[in-house]
Amino acid sequence: MVGQASRLRGVSAYDRIIDLPLKIEGYELDGLSRTVSSGFERLTTVIRLQGAGEEGAGEDVTYEADEHRVAQERGPELPLAGEWTFGSFSEHLDEVDLFPAAAPSREVFRNYRRWGYESAALDLALRQAGTSLADAVGRPLEPVRFVVSSRMGEPPTIGPVARRLARYPDLRFKLDATPDWDDALIEALVETGAVDSIDFKGTYRGTVVDTVTDPAFYRRIAETFPDAWLEDPDLDTDGAREALRPFEDRITWDAPIHSVDDILAMPVLPRTVNLKPSRFGPVRALFDAYDFCASRGMGAYGGGQYELGVGRGQIQYLAALFHADAPNDIAPSGYDALDPEPGLPASPLTPDPEPTGFRRRS
Q1: Between the CA of residue 80 and those of 58, 122, 264, 321, what are the distances in Å?
Q2: Which of 53, 104, 121, 154 is most buried by a 10 A CB count?
């Protein structure tokens, strides 16, 4: 009831955490690595902030492996120690270069690392206060609906979907669509009835997942999957905007979204939008987006970035607070395997928070 009353008075979720006291005495960096199903070695860094007998953890999900190796080799060199509030520590990070060795290869990596440090600081501040994020913001935790994100292989086949459905027949999917999908594959996907979202990857530039824009393919997919969200189409290419004009109410955005201003700048204002926490960097920017969506009646869903550690549970925690009943691309670890092991948690995912802090138990 306290949380409901505060929201009625217009107090935002960020307002509820900004004044949390935070004492940092030191920190450590732990490297994680895993070879994922698409064949590349994924590295992340778990950031462990310590103070007042507690430890807070977050995860840097920067994609360039060398950025992690350099940070881990240099160790805890950043000026983070002190007594802060969570809000003043965030302001302090505005002045700290989180890549002191050299500028990152992609500017967005600054947000990814910033999210790692801020999520660790939030976890620590909550633990020092003896409370949980849910209690601090005054929101209930709800079971989280999730989808499994997958590419379809090279050449693309129904295998990545069919093999997962063989073990987990109730799974739902968000699929990376490429113009080399043939008629047989499209028909087979339709027959599964399991596709919630199509990701065109049309807004990526200079990455390994860049995809050729094909307006005819866009239209065919939109027509063939009439209930699916259409994520990140390239609407700057001749013909693409016209191809999807009849389906604009299903267009949604992911890769370009790092702030509320980015949502407003999109060529089509979405009915729902992918809010990936690590893309936003500061917690304030993410919570501003939650507030914006709520004020506009705009839907939101969450997405992950191949988190290997505590970060996955944290984005699941946020989904449980802010957009539980949505096609959240935050499946538990294990579903990225083509033949997932039995016994994985089913959707909807039951919230399982630690009693204090900003973490799931598992």
Answers
A1: 15, 14, 34, 29
A2: 121
Cβ–Cβ contacts within 10 Å for residue 9, how many? 7
Other beta carbons within 10 Å of 213: 20
Can you give the pLDDT at residue 30? 98
- Residue 40 — very low, low, confident or very high, per pLDDT cuts 50/70/90? confident
Rounded to a whole number of angstroms, the distance between the first and last alpha carbons of the chain is 28
DSSP percent split of the chain into helix, strand, coil, nearest 5: 35, 20, 45
Q: How far apart are the C-alpha atoms of 33 and 332, rounded to whole Å? A: 17
Spell out the domains of the chain, with CATH numbers in brackets.
2-137 (3.30.390.10), 148-322 (3.20.20.120)
Distance, in Å, from the CA atom of 241 to the CA atom of 199, rounded to the nearest integer, reads 16
* Sheet of 173-176, strands arranged across: 148-150, 173-176, 195-199, 229-231, 251-252
- Give the per-residue pLDDT at 273: 98
Closest CA to 306 of 338, 265, 336: 336
- Residue 315 to residue 333: CA distance in whole angstroms: 12
DSSP string, 3-55: HHHHHHTT--TGGGTTT-EEEE-EEEEEEEEEE-TTSPEEEEEEEEEEETTEE
Band (pLDDT 50/70/90 cuts) for residue 7 is very low
128: exposed, middle or buried (Cβ count in 10 Å: 0-12, 13-18, 19+): buried
For residue 204, the model assigns a pLDDT of 73
Is residue 270 within 8 A of residue 253, CB to CB? The reply is yes
